[in-house]
Specification:
The chain is an alpha/beta fold. It has two domains: about 10-205, 3-Layer(aba) Sandwich (Rossmann fold), CATH 3.40.50; about 230-330, Orthogonal Bundle (Arc Repressor Mutant, subunit A), CATH 1.10.10. It has helices at about 20-40, 95-115, 125-130, 150-155, 180-190, 195-205, 230-240, 250-255, 260-270, 275-295, 300-305, 310-315, 325-330, and strands at about 10-15, 40-50, 55, 60-65, 80, 120, 140, 160, 165-170, 170-175. The strands form three sheets. It has a six-stranded mixed beta sheet, sandwiched between helices. A hairpin with a 2-residue loop joins strand 9 (about 165-170) and strand 10. Helix 1 (about 20-40) runs parallel beside helix 5 and helix 1 crosses helix 6. The longest helix is centred in the N-terminal third of the chain and has 20 residues, at about 95-115. The two termini are about 15 Å apart.
Length: about 350
Amino acid sequence: MRSAEPPRVIPLYVVVPPRLLMLDAAGPIDAIRRANVEQARVRFDVHWVGPRRSVMTSIGVLASAIAPLPRSLSDDAMIMLCGSVGELSLASDPAAARDEADEAAIVAWLAAAIRPPHTVISICTGALLAARAGLLDGHSCTTHHQCCAELARLAPAARVLDDQLYVQDRQRWTSAGITAGIDLALHLIAQLTSQACALAVARYLVVYIRRTGAEPQLSPWLDGRNHLHPAVHRVQDAIAADPRSAWSGDRLARLAGTSVRHLSRLFRAHTGMTLPDYRNRLRVALAHELLAQTRLDIEQVAERAGFGSARQLRRAWRRWHATPPRAERDAGAAPERARPPGARHA
């Protein structure tokens, strides 16, 4: 059901460089477009901008109607820097000088326009433009594996990570080569809308939700989702929407349109876990959030997470955590990578 509240509108400026690598732009932005279809709480308002009104892309398709680089940006603006194909024109070709001038214009604009509130997203070698503008100094970041050494040279004050699909460090989001931009877009969608929306977008694009190398484990809300079976996804969507519910085998089988026994086989085959394990993982994840974000006592946390008692919560908790629930409460909320301004928990 769509919310009656007006959506939060996020201006997203896609900076188009010369020799645009088409998939760097098309992949992430199509994921963003689909997120606008799947939910109404957040609306991404996409603008294509650059120093030139039209550019020839890597696949020989002309990208046109590109708006000029804006003179100013609102504080909530997000800026996406796309990569280029690496081969410059021959030095004797007039296009080479023009391409270099366009890249210099983008770098100068970034250095002048980007302020602390702005979120900068780079896809593939778009990170090199951010580095030249000094925007990655003091941040962890990544880029295409063939360009990590160049990124380190351009941004000696940054920490370049060459073994990750994407990196989020405060207001700087960077991704590795090409299709990793889709992974970063799905991560962005999950952060700003919901995990359910990111999952729906991934299924629409027929891609996996992937983990980042920076995370010790896949989020329980995403674990077991790297498959394409629609009936199993329906069951997972239902449990994720209300993990506290009893969810009997008969009820889930009706959702899947199968027998209880066949659903159990399908679920294990496609997710690598049993239905009770999946349900309890989500309940423990919900209890973890309640412990970190509220002052409810352990009995209240257990009840709200769907457990019959604190004893049941502790028994399930021990399967995925080395320390007891009390340790989470004593430690307070675990530190996280910073979210963009206004981002909510999924």
